[in-house]
Specification:
single chain; Beta Polymerase, domain 2; Methane Monooxygenase Hydroxylase, Chain G, domain 1; 309 residues; six-stranded mixed beta sheet
């Protein structure tokens, strides 16, 4: 029975079989038509596998994870991509979330020029090209994160630091997720380069994989810079918020201190004892108000001289 999630491109040199969904039905097809190790097939079913490279006599099994942006949740999430690399075939298993990969496969499927260019060599060369496309997809995402950081910085220093707390935490989460997803790429590619003596891997593939390794290192360097920037910005924002809160608390404290003697005067004259001064005087009320005003002005002048206001 046809499976819409299973597509194949076949040339005289390479057979590329792509499973765009990693459910039991698709994995059972691999189980029935290939002699892959059962543990590798189980790994394709399990979500969020750690990147790794396993070697067998007649094929290599590679797991890599790549980030994609979930617009609904405003979050960078992980998508797993599994590769079975043989002498004349490449089998890929995905969850369908990586648009650059989906687009590249479709271009190779319908475009003769793409097939002639990318499927006329070795499966590892095709793998390297897939990695190149996916790594190129990382840099616009990193640029977008950098723009988010610049926008946050502008808003913070415009006096809206409290509104930016959530935005800063969202960017920090995305950078952390990005790092977790890509942190082992370099090690896995290095292991793949060391497999260049495998009987079905030609010597010149090492140059392509070295370029993939360099791109991965560049992306990681940018991530390190973004991580430092957002952490510095987070610290600055927290300092600004703390400074403003301290300023507010200082003003409230000053108001309390200024009103304290006024309350004391009001309490004393509120006792209504027979010997209370100004009580029977026709202008007593205004005298008491004047005394309170004098105390307030006196305290304000004192605080200003001390540069506390």
């Amino acid at each position: 029975m046809p499976n819409k999630y299973l597509s194949e491109i076949k040339t005289n040199h390479v057979r590329w079989l792509n499973l765009s969904r990693n459910t039991a039905k698709e994995i059972d097809y691999l189980r029935e038509n290939f002699k892959f190790h059962p543990l590798d097939l189980d790994d394709c079913l399990s979500p969020a596998q750690r990147p790794k490279l396993d070697e067998y006599d007649d094929y290599l099994f590679l797991i890599l994870t790549f980030p994609y942006y979930d617009h609904g949740r405003k979050e960078i999430r992980s998508s797993e991509l599994d590769f079975f690399i043989g002498q004349d075939y490449l089998v890929t298993v995905t969850d369908g979330q990586l648009e650059p990969f989906n687009k590249f496969f479709e271009q190779c499927r319908i475009n003769d020029a793409f097939r002639d260019k990318y499927l006329n060599g070795n499966p590892v060369a095709l793998l390297s090209e897939i990695l190149t496309k996916l790594q190129a997809y990382l840099f616009p995402m990193l640029d977008h994160i950098n723009l988010d950081i610049e926008d946050i910085e502008k808003v913070i220093f415009a006096g809206y630091e409290k509104k930016m707390v959530k935005e800063i935490l969202l960017v920090k989460r995305n950078i952390i997720n990005f790092r977790k997803i890509t942190q082992t790429h370099q090690n896995v590619i290095k292991k793949l380069i060391r497999k260049e003596r495998k009987f079905f891997i030609p010597d010149e593939i090492g140059l392509h994989l070295a370029n993939n390794l360099e791109q991965s290192a560049d992306a990681w360097d940018i991530l390190d810079g973004l991580k430092e920037n957002i952490e510095a910005l987070h610290g600055t924002n927290e300092s600004l918020i703390s400074f403003r809160l301290n300023d507010i608390m200082k003003i409230l404290t000053m108001i309390s201190v200024v009103l304290l003697p006024v309350n004391l005067v009001a309490s004393i004259f509120g006792m209504n004892t027979p010997i209370m001064p100004f009580v029977n005087d026709p202008g007593g009320f205004w005298m008491i108000l004047g005394l309170m005003g004098f105390l307030i002005v006196g305290f304000i002048i004192f605080f200003k001289k001390k540069n506390w206001l």
